[in-house]
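Ticket #4471: complex job returned nothing on first submit. Input attached below:
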Amino acid sequence: MNKIKCALIGSGNIGTDLIYKIKRSPVLEPVWMVGIDPASEGLARARELGLKTTADGVDGLLPHVLEDGIQIAFDATSAYVHAENSRKLNELGVMMIDLTPAAIGPLCVPPVNLRQHADRVEMNVNMISCAGQATIPIVNAVSRVQGVEYAEIVASLSSKSVGPGTRANLDEFTYTTSSAIEKVGGAKKGKALAIINPAEPPLIMRNTIYCLTEGTPDQARITESILQMIGEVQKYVPGYRLVNGPSYDGNKVSVFMEVAGLGDYLPKYAGNLDIMTAAATRTAEMFAEEILAGKIKLKTVEVA
Amino acid sequence: MSESNLKGRKVVLHDMCLRDGMHAKREQISVEQMVKVATALDDAGIPYLQATHGAGLGGNSLQHGFALASNEEYISAVASRMKQAKVSVLLIPGLGTMRELQAAYDAGARSVHVATHCTEADTAPQHIAFARKLGMDTTGFLMMSHLNDAAGIAQQGKLMESYGAQTVYVTDSAGYMLPADVTARVRALREVLKPETEIGFHGHHNLGMGIANSIAAIEAGASRIDGSVAGLGAGAGNTPLEVFAAVCERMGIETGVDLFKLMDVAEDVIVPMMDHMVRVDRESLTLGFAGVYSTFLLHAKRAAERFGVPARDILVELGRKKMIGGQEDMIQDTAMTMARERGVVTGAA
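Support reply: We reran it on our side without changes. The output follows.
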């Protein structure tokens, strides 16, 4: 079967983990990895796994895009360079999956709104944040049953799994995730809290989701909707697990989740990183399936 | 005890009643009460007082409870009435943001504790730099300091200083530390920080060590001490400030506050406000003994009632699981898991 060829931009933990997930996909094939440091471990690993590599940034990839038939690129660099990376690749008709907090394209949480994005043939979709991927499905599971006045999520991350980029820009993480709880989760108002815990051995990612419903919560229907949604997420993140709840207290619904990773390149406790790479892979697969079935055709983006 | 070697040392007191004390009041201190307490503290010569939600800026949440007013309302009501005291705020990155710091500054806050867990200072550079840009008196506040050793605290404090912090605090959030623990950490900070960078200590009284620990901090080089009048704060409360002021006076440490006025504030204003006697009781002692974040106290008591598992057992388990400040959600989660494992059946789902 034909596979859609992909490029990975950024040779850090996320980019390297993506190689493994994409390699497993029946519809995706990782072909290029782009870094900026010739000595990076990620690039060396990519070469071992049979990918072509460049340490010259996106510009090192551009001349090969057409001849190698690259159609989808994953950007795991930083919000600061994403816009430029996206512009250059979109011009060549490559669709971008953005794993940075740049969020210049529509926000995507696969089980909630991936279908819409694929139907619209969006050329850039953003994966929000790890906390967003882990919690917004639950917020949406409540809001599709009953109005949610306010949703609040608490993400606990192991210290070892939080890189320097996130640490130095925690406010962006907060703003991006809060806004996505509203836009994608469907809550009227959203708030995101992040806790970084240094315990050894590292703790598995935990997420707590609180929703305040409009009126008394319809417990049976909300619980059913949440369990169904958890099943949807488990299709691409098997370690997505309900620990406690849903618990009801007045109009407050509380759900306590845990996310263990697959342990591909990243350790299992780093479910926060794994859920990002898994969601990004799932997103790319949906686009790839549509392209392969001839239902959608990526278009080059004219730059104004 | 003589006036000893600390005679003439100057120490800046920072009152926490209207921030840490919010925890002990389930965030239910009114704007009027805040103004009453703050003006009394101002009149007693307290140079800095903190006034926000217990969890600081951005604290209003389901996780931490909703206060009776917004932080901006509290700050502006208090700041506009101060004759000499500066109003400070708490900012924990991951919860509060720079937008909220700007709003607090606009409302009149002029000092900030930028707080991280004691190993995660590198989540604060943006916020510390921004506070300095605003011209605020800026502190790097290393919470749960017992969970990092002296060398580690020194290294984290150095990071805070490099971002622009003018003061670095050893923060005994769990009230777990003993004087020797405080001495080691403050001394290690003093060795690596620039001479002009101040060191502070923030204690909790869960083992009854708030005052002894604060004195140990001063001996090792600290010049700022947090406490709260009558000890109104999380857990068994903060270092009771009027008691500490009295000890300082006996030892010849200069605080600049009026001791008798401070005693009157404690007795006439703060104690009548308390919903429960803030003291070392079974649960708050458990916090100090097990090294658990003091704010967990009332949450654990509520979870105990709801899920039928003793609060002390929940707190010990939270300590074993190495939960840190901000993880209040894990209290209910832990209580539910324990109730299930113990086969406790309660009405709550």
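The CA atoms of residues 230 and 266 of chain B lie 5 Å apart. Closing as resolved unless it happens again.
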